[in-house]
Amino acid sequence: MYARTLNYPADKSFFLFGPRGTGKTTWVKNSFPGGILIDLLDSAIYNSLLPAPQRLENFIPPGFDNWVIIDEIQRIPELLNEVHRLIENRHIRFVLTGSSARKLRKKGVNLLAGRAVTRSMHPLTTGELGDDFSLDHSLRYGLLPSVYIESDPGDYLGSYVHTYLREEIQQEGLTRNLQTFARFLETASFSQGALLNIAEIARECGVNRKMAEEYFRILEDLLLASRLPVFTRRAGRRMTVHPKFYLFDAGVFRTIRPKGPLDRPEEIDGAALETLIFQELRAINENYRMGYELYYWRTSNGQEVDFVLYGEQGLIAIEVKRTSTIRPREMSGLKAFVKDYPMAKPLLLYGGPHHLFEKGIEFIPLEKALKSLPDILRG
After folding, report:
1. Which of the four pLDDT bands, split at 50, 70 and 90, describes residue 238?
2. Contact partners, residue 372, CB within 8 Å, separation at least 6
3. Fewer CB near the last or first residue (10 Å), C or N of the chain?
């Protein structure tokens, strides 16, 4: 097991959300060895608590003074009323894990009114992998823990995507037509790391715009994807309005993305690299509680910066290139951004071997940047 960099409160209950396969259950078992694990994927436990959530207290001995872990809390949202009562009356500390906040929000259940904070479990980071990290392996298979353990990571990812569609989408009744949703998912994968045009995707997969928007919400609620908004603070130029779209892991993206003779490998490779950087930025920002908001920047005439981080620690602009040689026009987006925001720290992560400074832009080799990203973001 890889040690995870997860900052959690020592004396307060918390939710831990993350897609399946990111290692939530393994982490809680190892982090709270004296705790009580209530696994709602266990049929006997589920069938006991579903009709009578008040039975939860029967699982906790009198005087118990450790953590109680409820795994996959979204399966019985009504348990949160009992959790609330036990926090108030018995001062029990809970870890409440889940792969979806959708069902909790949809049910309008008690979300503990500030008595529990929220943390996220992401795929592994470069720092968590340590010496096991391989850039080529991560670009091909992503950073879910199992792809660094399984003998056939490609086969694992194929099963992972199929399982998600079957268990999370079909069994939870989130969509009536699984085949249409699968076609939508493939169509959406062509927008990875690109501007999101929902109307166009709806036309391509044969659904109306409202249904396509609902499908995107499902992906976001299941923590499988996110939309990256454009940075517009005090914009001095006309900006695009469309967000960018990212599935949460590079390996999952490559597994979903159709490939054939009409698909250019460099397009898929470029989207996978952006995804890898994006998921690393998200995980580090949350794990270390850095407080950045993540954006991208794009003007109406096409000048773009891949990622913008904005927060109390500063303003950082990041461009990502796999090539080892950077042509002047490939720096135009960063230069335009710095012209508008001279306080920004411009970084270009690239495939070359040398750490350089050129015309105010810091060039950092990709592997070095990934391994030192927490320090880079701290300034």
Report:
1. confident
2. none
3. C
CA 24 vs CA 3, 128, 342, 361: distances in Å: 12, 15, 41, 38
Name the 3-class secondary structure at 173: coil
Mean pLDDT for the stretch of residues 239-245:
92
pTM: 0.92
Domain boundaries, the chain: 13-120, 126-378
pLDDT at 138 over 90: yes
Distance, CA of 278 to CA of 306 (rounded, Å): 9
Distance CA 355, CA 294 (A): 24
Give yes or no for residue 251 having a pLDDT over 90: yes
Q: What percentage of residues in the chain have a pLDDT greater than 70?
A: 94
DSSP state letter for 124: P
Query: Any bridge partners for residue 17, and if so which?
Result: 98, 120
Phi and psi angles of residue 36, each rounded to the nearest 5 degrees, phi first: -100, 125
Integer Cα distance of 138 and 129 in angstroms: 11
Q: How far apart are CA 72 and CA 98, in angstroms?
A: 4
**DSSP class of 192:** B
3-class SS string, 228-294: ECECCCCCCCCECCCCEEEECCHHHHHHHCCCCCCCCHHHHHHHHHHHHHHHHHHHHHHHCCCCCEE
Q: Which CATH number fits domain 13-120: 3.30.1950.10, 3.40.30.10, 3.40.50.300, 3.40.190.10?
A: 3.40.50.300
- pLDDT tier at 328, thresholds 50, 70, 90: confident
Higher pLDDT, 187 or 111: 187
The CA distance from 227 to 193, in Å, is 9
* Residues 6+ positions from 152 with CB-CB distance below 8 Å: none
Kindly report the length of the chain: 379
Q: How far is CA 75 from the centre of its chain?
A: 21
Confidence of residue 33 (pLDDT cuts 50, 70, 90): very high
Instruction: Tell me the mean pLDDT in the region 146-169.
Output: 89
Q: What pLDDT does 352 receive?
A: 92
> What b/e sequence results for 1-17 when a residue is b if at least 16 CB atoms lie within 10 Å of its CB, and e otherwise?
ebebbbeeeeeebbbbb
Eight-class DSSP state of 2: P
